[in-house]
């Protein structure tokens, strides 16, 4: 019988299972909106360079939201550095399979994966700011 998870770090797999159930029962509809929103958000980005962009994706899950942003970024930037922070390996493996299936399309994206939470990532020296090359 399914149990409820009220403390994420203790039940990461159950959390993802539950999240996918919610997605399957209607939340996937949100992705139609993300497709349009990602284009609008990326169009508003005013970085110094159109050559490259650095992205930090915190809690990507299986990348079903990220994919819309990556597509939108591909239309605007030449090179995309895409750092993914996701503590649960199952959804991250799904994200990697998604990337493999789009290898030809996303050939200008340099992915970097971190199977950890954002706190651990930052403690180990990962950065969450200064992603814009202007700031370096
Ligand atoms: C509601 S899900 C959203 C997944 C995905 N972004 C989406 O919208 O489909 C939240 C995600 O955050 C991840 N997460 C939970 N705690 C985290 C932390 N401390 N650092 C980074 N990611 C975390 C979970 O594993 C989960 O994949």
Number of domains: 1
Overall pLDDT confidence: 87
Bound molecules: S-adenosylmethionine
State which percent range the strand residues make up. 5-15%
Number of helices: 5
CATH architectural group: 3-Layer(aba) Sandwich
Largest sheet: 3 strands, parallel
Structure class: alpha/beta
Tell me, what is the CATH class? Answer: Alpha Beta
Round the Cα radius of gyration to an integer and report it. 16 Å
Which residues sit in consecutive blocks of at least 5 with pLDDT less than 50? 132-136
Core attributes:
alpha/beta, binds S-adenosylmethionine, Rossmann fold, globular, 136 residues, single chain, 15% strand
Structure write-up:
- The protein is of the alpha/beta class and 136 residues long.
- It has helices at 12-24, 30-44, 66-74, 89-101, 118-123; strands spanning 52-58, 79-85, 109-114.
- It has a single domain, classed as Rossmann fold (3-Layer(aba) Sandwich).
- Helix content is 41%, strand content 15%.
- Helix 3 (66-74) links the parallel strand 1 (52-58) and strand 2.
- The radius of gyration is 16 Å and the shape is globular.
- Residues 132-136 have low confidence and may be disordered.
Question: What is the secondary structure topology, with strand pairs?
Answer:
Blueprint lengths: L11 H13 L5 H15 L7 E7 L7 H9 L4 E7 L3 H13 L7 E6 L3 H6 L13
Parallel strand pairs: 1-2, 2-3
Q: TL;DR of this structure?
A:
This protein has 136 residues and is of the alpha/beta class.
């Amino acid at each position: 019988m399914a149990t409820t998870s009220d403390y994420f770090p203790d039940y990461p797999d159950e959390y993802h299972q539950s999240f996918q159930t919610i997605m399957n029962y209607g939340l996937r509809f949100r992705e139609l909106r993300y497709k349009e929103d990602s284009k609008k958000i990326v169009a508003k980005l005013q970085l110094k360079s159109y050559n490259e962009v650095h992205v930090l994706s915190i809690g990507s899950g299986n990348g079903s939201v990220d994919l819309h942003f990556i597509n939108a970024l591909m239309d605007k930037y030449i090179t995309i550095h895409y750092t993914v922070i996701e503590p649960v390996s199952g959804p991250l493996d799904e994200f990697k399979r998604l990337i493999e299936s789009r290898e030809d399309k996303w050939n200008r994206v340099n992915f970097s994966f971190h199977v950890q939470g954002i706190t651990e990532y930052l403690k180990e020296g990962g950065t969450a700011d200064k992603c814009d090359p202007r700031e370096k």
